[in-house]
Amino acid sequence: MSDPTSAAVQPLARRPARRFVSERLILGVAFTILVLAVWEAVTRLGIVRPIFLASFSNVMIELWEGITEGWLWPHVRATAFVWVIGYVLGAIAGIAFGILAGASRRASYVADPWLNAVYVMPDIALVPIFIIWFGIGLEFKVWFVFLSGFFFVAVNTLSGVRATEGRYVTVARSFGARRMKVLRTVILPGSVPYVITGLRQAAGRSLVGVVAAEFVASNEGIGFMTSVAGQTFNTPRVMVGILILALTGVIVTEILGRIEHRFDAWRA
Question: Cα–chain-centroid distance for residue 201?
């Protein structure tokens, strides 16, 4: 027989979460509308010259022309392709590296110095050597995006493996669980929240990486389009590129953030 008290408490427990979500949505949308209104006003009133900041309405007109006339889609497809391939490869390699380095003390001793050294190094500093190795084609951009996201995933996965509570590992081993079973049933589930955190951080960083690569060596993509538009003082088209990148980053980060929140209870 169900407990009426617990049934009455459950809806109350959900209310704060729902209230938080609705409040967050309302405030976010309201502030966005305010920013867009101020943006339109300062350009329409001549407070800021159009060459420095195109009005929001002109940016929307440029975006619509890019969609209807077709010149925008090749750039979007090029950037999306490089970003997805580089990000997925970096995520897979980062998870594998983090698990290996975290599960083995000796591997950790070997990996830590190199991981820390490359992690703090600006990605853009490696562009010249990457161009020498891979040229200026697709391989260069994919490997550059791979590098941009790999270390965020690897570091967070490594932290998750190390954060696994030792008592759970001890209990598993006391029941005769072998090393691989402990890794599969104890360490990996405990690392999932950290892995998702790394994936969320790597998504934005990889997007920065693909745009940087297109700035340096490319003849297509959002970064290339934005760079050319800036050189020709086409401010509305520059703002279109920035807007697409910003919306992509917000959407991907929000999706991964919601997934991360689902697994917060697994965090050590």
Answer: 5
C-alpha pair distances (Å), 255 with each of 8, 79, 196, 250, 261: 31, 20, 11, 9, 10
Secondary structure letter of residue 131 according to DSSP: H
**Distance set, CA 173 to CA 25, 146, 160, 188 (Å):** 46, 36, 19, 15
| pTM for this model (two decimals) | 0.79
Tokens of 175: 């029941």
Distance CA(75)–CA(59), nearest Å, equals 17
Residue showing tokens 């980062």: 94
Cα separation, 61 vs 55, in Å, equals: 10
Q: CA dist 182 to 80, 153, 168, 185, Å?
A: 38, 22, 9, 5
30-58 confidence digits (pLDDT tens): 888 898 899 889 888 888 888 888 888 89
Tell me the Ramachandran region of residue 267: left when phi exceeds 0, alpha when psi lies from -120 to 50, beta otherwise.
Answer: beta
User: Which amino acid appears at position 114 of this protein?
Assistant: W
Q: What is each CA distance from 87 to 32, 129, 203, in whole angstroms? A: 29, 20, 7
